[in-house]
Amino acid sequence: MIAWILGLTTFVLMARVLGPSQFGLFTLIISYVTLVDGVVNFQSWQAMIKYGGDALENKNINRFKGVVKFCTLIDVLTAIVGTITAILIVSIIGSWLSWNNDTVNMATFYSLTILFNLSGTPTGVLRLFNKFRLFAIIHIITATVKLTGIAIIFYLNIDLWTVISLYITTTIIGQILLFSLGWRELQIQGYTGVFKVPLKEINSLNPGIFNFVLTTNLTGSVGLGRKEVDTLIIGGIAGAEGAGLYKVAKQLASIPAMCSDSLYQSIYPELSKLWAKKEILAFKKLIIRSGLIAGASATFIWIGFIMFGSWAIQTFFGSSYVAAQSLTIMYMLAMVIAIFSFPLQPAMLSIGKPKISFWIQLVATIIYLITLKWLLSAIGIIGAGIAAIILYALCSISMAIVEIIIIEKMLKAVKKSSFSVDQNYSEA
């Protein structure tokens, strides 16, 4: 919560000091680098939790070390490839977004942060050992440094280059802290000599790990399609100022997400354990209970914004951002839908069906981006909010239907297996 408040304060100050147009340019630079990083840099933390958690459950130490080594090598390789890719194609993207040379140089400079993104494996390790408090500490440290820097920039009225430099510094600090704490935790838990473990049997010991890593990366890339590509599309159609207004709307709309963020960090490992133990009823109840708690809280926040949103935007961001109010209301409604259904994604991964999740999100995202482009041209920036509602409704309904079918089948199988065991015991 502290890190979130610091982050929101930083965001508000930055939006005010830069104004919609410059803030929009900053947003587009961040979106571009985040997109490349997300597409190329695999989501190794998910494999770490699934296969590393299974190894810990079975007390197979060498298998666990092998998963750590495998995921770390993926982190290093993809960080290098991601950095090179971002630098090579920045001119092409810059030309499409009508960036001048100075903006292209800023984006190139910011691309260097990808090289330090080795946080996938440490993230998975810290989550496996329930060290969620360390994430909060890292976020507070980086958010404090960022807020201090932005406050100085706000006071001195310094340009966008300084803001970019500040974000590069704080991003790298955060990545180094996370990497260090993750590996420190491995040492504390007694898992030393990770790189001495051979990887020859990584696939046989962890069936489907290559496919899982590839699929979760593709799924994450699809997710970026609705988180970053949409910003770039808006920048291409509505210009930098439109992107700036959209970023403010998305940031405000993400406020309800604090109802699910902390739950998401803990629910995936717990769901994985319940499914592995075949405690299907508890698995089902955890999905429903978590979704209802987070969704109900998010709904109250959304209603509050409808009542006081206009005042909040004018007071904190200034009158130049008032045009974002209606868009924020629509986008926040989309987020409320997503929060009600947030347990469905980690549940699908725990079940071991990442491909289904990928295809659902891919189809929904393609529909979203097509709808977004059409609505932007037809009715303006408000169309982005409507497109977001369509996206999250499609994803939520589709995932829910598939998971209901899978869970009900598994419940029947577990009951049948239990009945057979009881019957054999009686006969004996």
TrEMBL record:
Membrane-crossing segments per the record: 25-45, 66-97, 109-129, 136-158, 164-183, 286-309, 321-344, 356-376, 382-407
The keyword ATP-binding is annotated on this UniProt entry: no
Pfam families reported for this sequence: Polysacc_synt
InterPro entries for the chain: Poly_Biosynth_Transport, Polysacc_synth
Entry membrane topology: Multi-pass membrane protein
Compartments it resides in: Cell membrane
Record has Secreted as a keyword: no
A GO term from the CC aspect: plasma membrane
The organism's place on the tree of life at top rank: Archaea
Keywords: Cell membrane, Membrane, Transmembrane, Transmembrane helix
Main location: membrane
Protein name: Polysaccharide biosynthesis protein C-terminal domain-containing protein
